[in-house]
Amino acid sequence: MSVPVDExxxxxxxxxxxxxxxxxxxxxxxxxxxxxxxxxxxxxxxxVAAPTDQILDTSPQKPAAAAAASSVxxxxxxxxxxxxxxxxxxxxxxxRPDLRPVPATPAAPAVGIPARTVDPERAARIATLDWEAxxxxxxxxxxxxxxxxxxxxxxxxxxxxxxxxxxGEGPGRxxxxxxxxxxxxxxxxLDAMLFALGLDRTRVYIANAVKCRPPDNRTPxxxxxxxxxxxxFRQIALVRPRVLVALxxxxxxxxxxxxxxxxxxxxxxxxxxDIPVVVTYHPAYLLRNxxxxxxxxxxxxxxxxxxxxxx
Length: 311
Ligand code: SF4
What we know:
Blueprint: H1 7-16, H2 30-34, H3 41-44, H4 63-70, H5 120-126, H6 131-140, E1 156-158, E2 164-168, H7 173-178, H8 185-196, E3 204-208, H9 222-239, E4 243-247, H10 249-256, H11 262-265, E5 270-272, E6 275-280, H12 283-288, H13 293-309
Parallel strand pairs: 2-3, 2-4, 4-6
Antiparallel strand pairs: 1-3, 5-6
Helix pairs in contact: 1-8, 9-10
Bound molecules: iron/sulfur cluster.
């Protein structure tokens, strides 16, 4: 069921996401059909779909498209030298992504973030915490240098039984001040992205790869992400979402354990344990590169097919 909003607000939010006026009404989204979307998808969909020249393609990127995507200026957050991306689970080109149901209890992730920074005993203990103990531990955490410059730690926000979980990079200035992830301009755009999916913050869970603000909003280091990762992993285990959406490279690093470039990883379905992971651009990047909003919308439609495809 869609979030009830009046038409004026709906139009304003969709325009913010870049979905009007270029995007026009359709009864069903192409990617959902291609990805084996099950019943009821259109019921939660906003009354928008891809423009005729942007029919969504859920197959892995074709070489030409990938080359074009990789030519996007590397101003995206945390863009660094390319490394071998994680192996997609969607198989060779032309095959549909694996949309098998996600088990109620996800398997432990096989992450490869810097092992030297991970304290196994600490990670094992965090893996047993309930929500209240987890958030208390995050707020009191001094495990990495980021605690020295934070105003407060920002654990996460949203529905603890959500089917969708969004993972960002880390708190910015406003998030650090207010104690909530994704507030300010990037948060407003994320809200528009959620709205375009027929969602709002009461229906998703939102967390960051690191819970404390890096000084001057710099990108968190791989070691900081590794030290903070047990908190994120426990949040995922407690939420048990049907899909994880990694917003930007640091989030993808936290979830996948490997450095990837978003432009090259888009269109693939990765896995965190048994949970599918869709990678896309961070809203802050999209604010600087609004032309890529259409790509983010493609990624979100792919994630929606994963959520709803299991039925
Ligand atoms: S960023 Fe994470 S690991 Fe570092 S101090 Fe904050 S909560 Fe602890």
